[in-house]
């Protein structure tokens, strides 16, 4: 029987989730769902010096916003709980000790000063930055260099130690990556990574392998930045559980700066004023907040869609996908090897497409909140829905529903007079007086009728309607923007439109 597909997203909760991280979640999730498998969220928090308050909660909220709910997680529990590595501390030691017994790992007692000395005293021209590895390990204070008796003595004296993997010298290892194919590594290039720290906590390398085994992970997908650690993981699999039991691997390409020049970073976000986090992240120490896609006004559907195609396509020209459609069409093998350049303008295009696509119901909740944040009360739901329908095509980001639509909720207090005054004359004043007076006789108040009456009156008074439309717009909106002007008047209603026209006419006497 085929094994049930089980994948995991295994973040270290140290801050906001970069869009590359969310894409890793998404690809894992899609793969699991299309194979009727399980998607597990495991919190890799064994580095306690990097503990950041709120970072774990942030991950839950982001996954929730994107609609990528895990089947098993610290919050949800599951058959392999606990899913937070700090709560699994006692599990790992036994594996580290087995490695020592089998000769694949060793105790290392070096102090930080001794490590520093190694880095300087072993520096040579051919080895400018010496590491703790096959070249240096016999000069250090560890169970290989001091023998079993010396080791026993130090252990009995409770000398602090770490457990390191003994990387073989000059061996070529490989893994078959579902995206990259066969990837080879020379073990001599990798240092003797610490597996268990002095505080008894495992490092990421040991914990990731032990947990992928214990949690029966069948496919391990992660960002390309983890590829250099892969040889350590392959060896740990070989030594502990058998290489044949290793999950299938895939390393996703990096997300690059807009100009393609290196990995997209937090600094680019500041430099270019573009979001890189899914949601806003506030650093608990500095208090500094970095805004995210959600706060910029992205719909989660658009964010997820944009991420899906950042490094993947289905071989057609299609760009717009719903999550349901992605579950069907996504394939790991079609994920690109090369890094994907992030283009914020394109991201906004995706959002505009989704603003056009989602239901008015969904938009109305989000737009109402934006107005509330601006202290604008929206009493009438059906009026709000009409405004949304009228302006949605013009909005790339949700806050634009406010900037493009606020005049529907409050009359302009300032007008673009520069565009009006120079061409104003008494004929125009009398036109607008008669137009607003004619409103009383328009029984079916809609854009078409409003335009008809407007044109008839203009013609009968010998003025080109084209010269009157801009003034009407400025009367209703305050500026030269917005959807078709008769649509605006139609939505504002008879009384309000009349009020706005007269409001400006009152001022023209002084011009
Ligand atoms: N804990 C690692 C991280 O922070 C996980 C890497 C992996 O998935 O193996 O991304």
What name is given to the CATH topology of the domain at 88-209?
A: Glutamyl-tRNA Synthetase, domain 3
Radius of gyration: 32 Å
What is the typical, i.e. mean, pLDDT?
96
Strand-residue proportion: 5-15%
**Intertermini distance:** 87 Å
Features:
511 residues; mainly alpha; Glutamyl-tRNA Synthetase, domain 3; Arc Repressor Mutant, subunit A; 3-stranded antiparallel sheet; two-stranded parallel sheet; 20 helices; 43% helix; binds glutamic acid
What does this protein look like?
- The protein is built from 20 helices and 13 strands.
- Helix 6 (204-214) packs across helix 7 (230-241) and helix 16 (426-438) crosses helix 17.
- The protein is elongated.
- The longest helix has 16 residues, at 19-34.
- 36% of the residues are buried.
- By secondary structure, it is mostly helical.
- Strands 3-4-7 form a three-stranded antiparallel beta sheet. It has a two-stranded parallel sheet with strand order 1-2. A two-stranded antiparallel sheet has the order 5-6.
- Strand 1 (6-9), helix 1 (19-34) and strand 2 form a beta-alpha-beta unit.
- It has helices spanning 19-34, 55-66, 89-101, 112-121, 143-156, 204-214, 230-241, 266-272, 293-296, 300-308, 323-329, 344-357, 360-373, 381-391, 400-403, 426-438, 447-460, 465-477, 485-492, 494-508, and strands at 6-9, 38-41, 105-108, 162-165, 172-177, 181-186, 194-196, 219-223, 248-252, 255-256, 281-282, 289-290, 340-341.
- Among the domains are: 88-209, Glutamyl-tRNA Synthetase, domain 3; 417-508, Arc Repressor Mutant, subunit A, CATH 1.10.10.
- Residues 10-12, 44, 204, 208, 222, 226 line the site of glutamic acid.
């Amino acid at each position: 029987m085929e094994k049930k597909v089980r994948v995991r997203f295994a973040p270290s909760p140290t801050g906001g989730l970069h869009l590359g991280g969310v894409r890793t979640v998404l690809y894992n999730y899609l793969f699991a769902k299309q194979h009727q498998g399980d998607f597990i969220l495991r919190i890799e928090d064994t580095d306690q010096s990097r503990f950041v308050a709120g970072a774990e909660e942030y991950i839950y909220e982001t996954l929730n916003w994107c609609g990528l709910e895990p089947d098993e997680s610290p919050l949800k529990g599951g058959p392999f709980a606990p899913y937070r590595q700090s709560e699994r501390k006692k599990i790992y030691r036994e594996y580290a000790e087995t490695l020592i017994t089998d000769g694949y790992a060793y105790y290392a007692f070096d102090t930080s000063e001794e490590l520093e000395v190694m880095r300087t005293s072993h520096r040579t021209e051919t080895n400018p930055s010496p590491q703790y590895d096959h070249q240096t390990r016999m000069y250090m204070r560890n169970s290989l260099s001091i023998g079993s008796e010396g080791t026993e003595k130090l252990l009995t004296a409770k000398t602090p130690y770490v457990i390191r993997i003994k990387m073989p010298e000059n061996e070529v290892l490989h893994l078959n990556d579902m995206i990259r194919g066969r990837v080879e590594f020379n073990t001599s290039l990798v240092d003797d990574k610490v597996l268990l720290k002095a505080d008894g906590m495992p490092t990421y390398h040991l914990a990731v392998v032990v947990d992928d085994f214990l949690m029966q992970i069948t496919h391990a997908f992660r960002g390309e930045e983890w590829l250099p650690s892969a040889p350590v993981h392959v060896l740990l699999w070989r030594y502990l559980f058998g290489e044949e039991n290793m999950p299938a691997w895939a390393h996703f390409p990096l997300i690059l700066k807009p100009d393609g020049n290196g990995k997209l970073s937090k600094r680019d976000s500041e430099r270019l004023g573009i979001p890189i986090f899914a949601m806003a992240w506030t650093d608990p120490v500095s208090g500094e907040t970095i805004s995210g896609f959600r706060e910029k006004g992205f719909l989660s559907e658009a964010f997820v869609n944009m991420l899906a195609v950042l490094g993947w396509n289905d071989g057609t020209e299609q760009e717009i996908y719903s999550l349901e459609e992605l579950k069907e069409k996504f394939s790991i093998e079609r994920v690109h090897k090369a890094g994907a350049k992030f283009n914020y303008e394109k991201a906004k295009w995706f959002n505009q497409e989704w603003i056009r696509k989602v239901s008015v119901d969904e938009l109305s909740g989000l737009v109402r909140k934006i107005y509330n944040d601006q202290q604008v009360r929206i009493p009438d739901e059906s009026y709000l829905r009409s405004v949304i329908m009228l302006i949605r095509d013009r909005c790339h980001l949700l806050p634009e529903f406010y900037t493009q639509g606020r005049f529907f909720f409050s009359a302009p207090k300032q007008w673009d007079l520069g565009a009006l005054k120079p061409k104003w004359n008494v004929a125009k004043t009398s036109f607008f007086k008669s137009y607003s007076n004619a409103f009383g006789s328009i029984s079916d108040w809609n854009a078409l009728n409003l335009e008809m009456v407007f044109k008839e009156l203009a013609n009968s008074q010998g003025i080109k309607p084209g010269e009157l439309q801009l003034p009407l717009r400025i009367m209703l909106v305050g500026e030269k923007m917005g959807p078709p002007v008769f649509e605006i008047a139609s939505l504002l209603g008879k009384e309000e439109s009349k009020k706005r026209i007269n409001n400006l006419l009152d001022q023209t006497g002084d011009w």
